[in-house]
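tmp note - Phospholipase A2
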Amino acid sequence: MPVGQHTIALADQVSPGIGPSFPSILPITETAMVKKETSFWYLLSVRIIQARHISCKDLLSHSDCYVSLWLPTASHEKVRTKTISNNSNPVWNESFHFRIQTQVKNILELELYDEDVATKDDLLFTVAYDVAKVKPGETVHEKLTFNSEGKEVLEVEFTMGGIPSPPEKLITNGVLVAREMLCLEVQMTKGENEECLKRGESVMLMVKESYEEMQRITEDSDILCLHCIKGWEPTLKATLESGAAEKKMQRDASSGSLEVPLNSLSIGHKMKVGLPLEKPAHLELQLKANERLEGLDVRLGFDLCVEEQDFLRKRKKVVAEALKKFLYLEQDLQEHELNNSTLSNQRQAVNQGQNPLPFYLALSVKKDMQSSFAFKEWCEFSPFEVGFLKYGAFIRSEDFGSHFFMGRLMNRIPESRICYLEEKNKSLSTQPFSAQKTFCFSPPDEVSHIVNEILTSRPADERTPNFLKGLQFHKDYDQHEEFSTWNDVQADVPPNHLTPLEEELCLVDATDFINTSCPPLLRKERRVDVILYFGYSLLKTCFDSIEETGQYCVEQGLPFPKIILTEEDKKNPKECYVFVDDENPEVPIVLFFPLANNTFKEYKAPGVKRSPAEMEKGDIDFVRSTSPYKLENLTYSKEDFDKLLMVTEYNVQNNKDLMLQAFHKAVERRKHQQS
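out:
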């Protein structure tokens, strides 16, 4: 949560709910937001023909060109052509083949390199080609230009053909797609292979397209697993390795090696294979391939989770009774008139809807774009879920920091402590970014320390495992309303370089961008009516935060009233401002409380004047450089702290009438909407 600023919604619509614990695997029920789709396979053939008019990067010769191809929806690996030396018009005529699904967004990246022997190869140009341009049964000849002048050209031929294989079952929310997975179990019977194990030899298992990539069977191993996308038709390569390096090098290449295509295994049945040794013997392995089709550990969807919906039902009853007394209503509020340790341990405090829930916010950024925030994505934390608004993908809060692949939990890491999300651990500094230090409480375990720094560093970041890893994009992802709403990336980032393709998440404090934690409140599913916005930041002027929030919401089309302030307001801030959009009842009413000392100077309570002896207690300075509350001061004296509490409490109490008017207006809006 940003420093010195809080946002509260009437009826606590900001809060996710309470309910039964998540099952270990989330059952996939088809809804309007989550669908199961069946998609046939196609074979994409790409022929790299030639390049023309390639500019020279070397001083004494033409470039030594080759083309690299990367289609991450079909393979993790990049493939490349041979190198054509000393030629500005290289001709390759090489073909490459990819098994693809047309329901996912297939962007083929073609990179032209100049090969260098002594230094790193020079990247000359990159072209991202949308494979959707090629229809099944068609052959398309493209002349891809690398610049606006069109002199440098890469000629490529694309052909799309069908594949006679069973269709694949996909799970999608319209933005992200989870695909069928295989889990390969490998076991070596220790009794039958005792002699080999005693020699200190081990078996290296490799499936290049798998999540694990490599596993090693040793004397202490039991069953090892490798997870991969079923449709990629991966191959298991098993190699016997000796403990002695020289023996390994002298081993006959034909012995101690085995390759098994996984599509040759019967699903759910064990199969024995022999790894040939140097002498007439073999090492026996048991293989078993299991499908993982239905269950996901990542919740795909843009609606509120079941736990939050359950919380809101309980919370409505609590809020209804409070509002009836607070607003002096003669009748009970009806259902339609109401607003809808570790982080997960906070659930107990709201298991009957008795308390509001905290929401925390971070920004996912790219390391090379961190200072400019040209790439940023909101990541919200609640006691129930952690997830990305943009992608509609959420995991249980206790699973944050664990390892995921294709929406499935691979390796659970113990949940971190909540201190990294709490305001007391914020790092405060006015130094330039390059000179800033991080001030934080260090929890006892390493995972907690890492996540602590994730959300408190400015602008330093920490990396955490990416729970979106492996998930792919739906072919129409960029047309999805929710994706468009939260897609405020300024840089032109193709899908191959968005968050699901990253190994780790790079999260920073949201305050580095805008000093607000408002965005989670503004999700249309939460239907917030009133926001109490406490702008207690002294980073800039007291209005910068809410003005930046208002401008951001205008740009993104989020429901937020226009923030209109006069020069007098900025010179002499009032205790409370009300911002409302009278033309659109769907826009929440915002009551903004800046950190101001106006009537508190002369009144110790609303309507109660200070005596001459009490005037000193009303003398609070938030403006001058000598203020005890300036940003560099991380601690306050007891007297200064008490004054701060008193003035903020007074400002709220003194503007009770404005709050009541806002609440009444919100209730009337709801009644009118249902009439």
